[in-house]
Amino acid sequence: MASHVKIVAEIGINHNGDLDTARKLVDVAFDAGCDAVKFQTFWNIPEFAHLNFSKCEWQRLFLYCELQGIEWFSTPFDLEAVKFLDELGMGNWKLPSNIRVLGDPNMLDVIQYAKSRKHTIISTGISPMWNIYELMLRFYDRPVTLLHCVSKYPTPIDEMNLFRIGILQKRFEVPVGLSDHSTSICCVPIDAVRLGAVMIEKHITLDRDAVGPDHLASLNPYQLKRMVSVIRGLEINEKHTKK
């Protein structure tokens, strides 16, 4: 297992378009001991327009993250979002898992930007293996982390197929993590870490009963803190075992 698993709190759109809620979720992630928070930025999805922020609001939110001392990044869903995030100096680039990225002409622009940046995180989601192969050819000389992901919200534990983590590691010889859409607090993340996951991405919310597409597949503040604590405890035990 990795000596330090990167834990990413996926805020996504669970702020419901409210800046104060977004800040509170950043606080939740920081207090739990997460390494980073992640959002979703878009200006080309009309039905979700109410879940986005203005560029000024995004800048204020990212500044808040920096003042709190937690890394931030966001998944861009259109070229305008890509250019905006690039101007802000975003370090990690994340390609989304809910579409076949090479089958969407709009995403080719996103890929072109991402492949020239420092580091790209790619969720495999519904992408078939041939699609992942084709995508990885575009990043053959660039640092990439693949995330095993099941695009079902929430994902039943018996459908997580965690052994795919090892398959992706062997086939592509890159770091592999897990974008976890299950409601498992500890079992799924711990099993993923034991199978070699270097990153755990988990949706978070203030209220799992809130209105929105992702709240039900998210952890509340107490659950998130519990998950982080268990993962860090596993790392400590593993370190002591190796001595």
Topology as H/E string? EHEHEHEHEHEHEHEH
Strand order of the largest sheet: 3-2-1-8-7-6-5-4
Kindly name the structural category: alpha/beta
Quote the average pLDDT.
90
CATH architectural designation? Alpha-Beta Barrel
Task: Indicate the proportion of strand residues.
Answer: 15-25%
Shape: globular
Rg, nearest Å: 17 Å
Please name the defining characteristics of this protein.
TIM Barrel; globular; alpha/beta
Description:
This protein is of the alpha/beta class and 243 residues long. The chain has a single domain, classed as TIM Barrel (Alpha-Beta Barrel), CATH 3.20.20. Helix content is 40%, strand content 18%. The protein has eight helices and eight strands; from the N terminus they run E-H-E-H-E-H-E-H-E-H-E-H-E-H-E-H. It has helices spanning 19-32, 55-68, 79-87, 105-114, 129-138, 164-172, 187-194, 221-242; strands spanning 6-12, 36-41, 71-76, 92-95, 119-123, 144-149, 176-180, 199-203. It has an eight-stranded parallel β-sheet with strand order 3-2-1-8-7-6-5-4. Strand 5, helix 5 and strand 6 form a beta-alpha-beta unit. Helix 1 (19-32) runs parallel beside helix 2 and helix 1 (19-32) runs parallel beside helix 8 (221-242). The chain is globular.
